[in-house]
Amino acid sequence: MQKISRSHKGTHSKYYTTLFPDDMMLNVFGHKEPTPSDRANYFKNLWNEWSDNQLIFAKQSKLERTIHEKLEPHMKALFEWQIRAETIEDKTYKTKDNVLVYNTHKSSPNNKMYVKKVLVVRFKSTELCALGKILLS
């Protein structure tokens, strides 16, 4: 469902326009109003393509907001970087904060897999990843 701005009848809201500027929509999709599934598929493909340029942070309270505040002034949101909450296997097997334990085989309690909740930030290029590392350090 499209978001309509109350102040600008017939146009997108300021949030939609910030995330999906008309010029970028025209460049990527060939028209200004791609379907939500078209947009989702496009950004999913970007996420997969950018797997070599990622930073992983332990999930903490308000960290996602901090990351947005530091990166958004320097990079175009969504088109140069993306952030997602994920779980990764924890090789240290420590039972600290944000570590979940899963039994991989229900019959044997010794076969446990430890996973940690993290924030993964992926960047369009190696240069942007380096800039992100500097900004987030």
DSSP helix fraction = 25-40%
Extract low-pLDDT stretches: 1-10
Strand content: 15-25%
| SSE topology string | HHHEHEEEH
The count of β-strands is 4
What's the N-to-C terminus distance?
38 Å
What is the count of helical runs? 5
Give the rounded overall mean pLDDT: 80
The radius of gyration computed from the alpha-carbon positions, rounded to a whole number of angstroms, is 19 Å
> Structural class from helices and strands?
alpha+beta
Overall shape: it is: globular
Main sheet overview = 4 strands, antiparallel
Any overview of this molecule?
By secondary structure, this protein is of the alpha+beta class. It has a domain of 83 residues. Helices cover 34% and strands 23% of the residues. It contains five helices and four strands. Strands 1, 2, 3 and 4 form a four-stranded antiparallel β-sheet that branches. Strand 3 and strand 4 form a beta hairpin.
Quickly list its features.
disordered N terminus, alpha+beta
Concise structural overview:
The chain is α+β, with helices and mostly antiparallel strands.
Could you give the topology of this structure?
Layout: H1 14-19, H2 22-29, H3 36-49, E1 54-58, H4 63-71, E2 81-89, E3 99-103, E4 112-123, H5 126-135
Antiparallel strand pairs: 1-4, 2-4, 3-4
